[in-house]
Amino acid sequence: MKELRYIKKCHRLAVLIIALMLGVAAQAAVSFTVQAPRQVSAGNKFNVTFVLKNAEGSNFTAPEIAGATKIYGPALSTSYSSSWVNGKSSSSSSQEYTMIYKATHSGRLNVGAATVEVNGRTMRTSPFTIEVTGAGGASSQQRDEDRRSGGVRYNDPMTQSADKAVTGKDIFVRIEMSKPRVFEQQAVVCTIKLYTKYQVSQFMPTQQPSFDGFLIEEIPMQPSLNNVETVNGQQYMVAILKKCLLYPQKSGKLTITSGNYDVNVVQYEQYRTIFGTLQQPVEKSLKVQSNTATVNILPLPEPRPESFTGAVGKFTVETLLKPDQLKTYQAATYTYIIKGMGNIKYLKAPELKMPKEMDVYDPKSTVDAKTVGTDMAGAVTIDYPFIPQFAGTFELPASEFTFFNPETEKYESIPIPGRKFTVAKGEGTPSNHYRIQNMDIRHIATGDLGLKRTPAFMVAGFAYWLWYIVPLLLLAAVLIYYRKQLKLRSDVRLMRNKRASRVAQRRLKQAQKFINAGNSDAFYAETLNSLWGYLSDKLTIPVSELSKDNIEAELEAYGVEQALRERTLALLDKCEYAQYAPELAGHDLQGVWDEAAGVIDSLESVKRKKTESAQ
Known about the structure:
The chain is flat. It folds into four domains: about 25-135, Sandwich (Immunoglobulin-like); about 160-295, Immunoglobulin-like; about 305-435, Immunoglobulin-like (Sandwich); about 490-610, Four Helix Bundle (Hemerythrin (Met), subunit A). The protein has helices at about 1-25, 140-150, 430-435, 460-490, 490-515, 520-540, 550-560, 560-580, 590-615, and strands spanning about 30-35, 40, 45-55, 60, 70-85, 90-105, 105-110, 115-120, 120-125, 130-135, 170-175, 180-185, 190-195, 200-205, 215-220, 225-230, 235-250, 250-255, 260-275, 275-290, 295-300, 310-320, 325, 330-340, 360, 365-370, 375-390, 390-395, 400-405, 410-415, 420-425. The strands form eight sheets. Strands 22, 24, 25, 26, 27, 29 and 30 form a seven-stranded mixed sheet that branches. Strands 11, 13, 15, 16 and 17 form a five-stranded antiparallel sheet that branches. With about 625 residues, the protein is α+β, with helices and mostly antiparallel strands. The chain has nine helices and 31 strands.
């Protein structure tokens, strides 16, 4: 009988876990996508994998591909994963239908949509094309030699058997730099690529490469294994993992450190049957480390012009003054507009020599730039707000904007002509900012100021002795308070009793957060811990020795009425029951929280009555 009850209990628990997992999976997004190479060689085999995520499909139909022969498929593989992070659960599942085709001749293969039925509705993949090239294709004799020698081909699953060790020649990550040397602040493109002969089912960076000494501009990318490249005479599927513009901030040899990655690749277990060789996809987990890459950074030539503020690239400049008619005490703006290609996002505002009769404020920069090719292009607008304080005719002196051109390896200057402008009389008063900037130091007063010496004895005054009396009184008060606290803290039983309610209320606040988050499991666990901890401190009994029997006995000895004792034990039972059978515990979490707070308040009231009767 005991074994039967145990089996039933395990069965109920398993049903609850499966229901929870299915409920979480139902909330995840359902998608139906395809994974395939975008380029293959004529005469080679290639895989096309259709992936259904977060759903269970049926009646899968693969597309017919004109110009290619189906060798095998569909092979179905299913995976499921779940996680619990910060009190929240998440899960995902996938069904993969793998097809193996053989490209018969060069040209373009049009792959239509695959279909699968999910909960009564039909889902389709997007059509796509595959380029079939004549060059790079291997003869059947060469492929047979590869199989016999143990070589792996990215488009031939027969060479990707599960008994083979995956080496660094089969899958690796490479960091590539667009230029071996650049000047300071000159852009260099960094590309991180994944090369693989196997299909990749999971790719997780565990340590990203570091770019010390560079400012980074990410180029948005969507990694996908849709390109084929040849490295050392071998073909690989290639995905661009990361691409960014790097702007070096110092000269010398700068190194991009290697990154670490966890990768799952797909191999095939092969079975010989009377119907031929069958293949079953299996996953293998690997740890992959990328190479390091270095760039030689050349310092900018010396001497640097005084008007050079760090601009590297090629730029143009124009200036504007608004409004056209200026008046005193009214805001105006002098604007630099710098356009071009280079480190435009990191330009410093040029120094503006405005007449002293103007109240000038800090410049404001607005950047509108985007990645174009191997650098950043766009415009930066620098506004210099100012307020004229006097009427008259004024002049902005001529200046120049200097930048370093990496193509010519020289500094180039753009002259900015001076500008005259007239300020008319307006209404208002000088700004506080201007008055503070132009405030003069007053002259020192001279002559007979009528000063007289009045003798006084400090010791005779009451304030003198007060400086001694007050610190002594404060010191005596601190000593009395300190001795009282030492006496109270020496009574361990009293201190645990005093902090019992405070600790319980703090835990109940955490339980309230779980109510708001809708996390019932964490709520019941936190409420139960609060009650056990409170009773342990209140009754001065270690938590490990607490039980419902000695709790009831100690509460009775403490003077707690029977109704309150029963109420306390019933609440403990309810929270424990909710932990192990959450599907039957109900969802009135706020009611349980109010009940726990009420029980603690009632027990605190008993304590106070007992203290009052003792007095």
